[in-house]
Amino acid sequence: MADGSLDAEVVIVGGGIAGLATAVALQRAGVAPGGRGILVLERHPELRATGTAMTVFPNGWFALRALGVAHKLTSRYDVIEKSRVTNLETGTTQVFRFAGNKVSDEVRMRAVDRKALLDALADELPPGMVRFSSKLVSIDAIPATSGSSEATVLRLEDGAVIRAKILIGCDGVHSVVARWLGLSEPLRSGRSTIRGLSVYPSGHGLKQEIRQYLSNGIRAGLLPISNTGIYWYLVNNTIPQEKVASADPVKILREVTENLGAHLPAEYLDVVRNTDLRNLSWAPLLYRNPWGVLTGKAARGTVTVAGDAFHPMTPEMAQGGCSALEDAVVLARALSQAATPSEGLAAYVAKRRGRATWLVAVAYVSGWVQQGGTNVHAAVGWVVRLFRDWIFFRFVFPRLADTMWYNCGDLVPCKNHTE
What we know:
Residues 412-419 have low confidence and may be disordered. The protein is 36% helix and 24% strand. The chain has a domain at 5-52 and 112-187 and 289-404: FAD/NAD(P)-binding domain. The chain has helices at residues 17-28, 58-67, 70-74, 114-122, 176-181, 243-247, 249-260, 266-273, 290-295, 320-337, 341-370, 378-405, and strands at residues 6-13, 38-41, 53-56, 82-87, 93-97, 110-113, 130-131, 136-142, 151-156, 161-169, 187-199, 210-215, 218-224, 229-236, 281-287, 299-300, 303-305. By secondary structure, it is of the alpha/beta class. It is built from twelve helices and 17 strands. It holds the Pfam family FAD_binding_3. Residues 8-360 form the FAD-binding domain. Keywords: Monooxygenase, Oxidoreductase. GO terms for molecular function: FAD binding; monooxygenase activity. Belongs to the 3-hydroxybenzoate 6-hydroxylase family.
């Protein structure tokens, strides 16, 4: 351009799971063969693997298979067949077995290192497609005229100006693109989570299963992701008040071992003490009001959002990453089948809105129940815990899990679980 701006067919804001998966999907769907015309803007100087690990259920594996990267990961991680939930107040343990008989071994539940997933997706993209240290600061729409098509002008923090025919916001919970579209701001759930990754070079010896511990206002868990790595988390009904404290890994570790999790089993605390401090975080759990997901303007002309930028959710049903992978596949298919980009983006939002709303709502309610009620009065909390221990984990949770994990909405392969 004469004015010094850069032209791109598609600009994807955010180089996380949603952004990279969307870029790969657009290539494979023929929207941008060979990646020509796609530009991914990542505000950090390199790919970031926040969250340490990601639980991938069949819907996520079907999406990864559609993206052509599932085979890179399934051989590296063992299948997880069951979860043990121990109530520390009553001493009872319930075992939840994942419905492995419904799917092939290739797409059964596994825990995957997020960095490995990002690398697998990034390897599918041509060099230079991801532009690092590129923070978006403003968006302006240029209406279509008789001599030009509709476009969007992006201004970056470094002064660069980019003109995009299609803009896809994959820039997370605090999305600049979602805010520009007018989607409602994310809400606090009243819960926060501490996450870490513990490394055992000689092997940890734990069984390949999820172990979860419940007590009043605390939910903690262990999840092996390999023979040498264990992902752990602790969800609590407090919010880190000091940014310094919540960002200081030494203080976070001390808070878990000496305060919030001091009463947890020795096995759990031993894992926590082996944490790699570079992979330790503490953050509030945010979500978008389900009504806002259902009715909000998630597409305007040639601009839309995907992943957490569209439907941020709490992690209790492990669908944040999986749903982002679903978004990528459905979005690319919608664009490839539409007469115009605006029609394709509108079709994508129409297809994803209902499932996304369901996922956000169920994840929030499930977390509230599993937590024994978040910040409720004693009597109400007692009723919620009674429901959780005697009904929810036995009857409700398996049914919810089945509709989320083994019913993949608009992903065609999921309609036949044996495929």
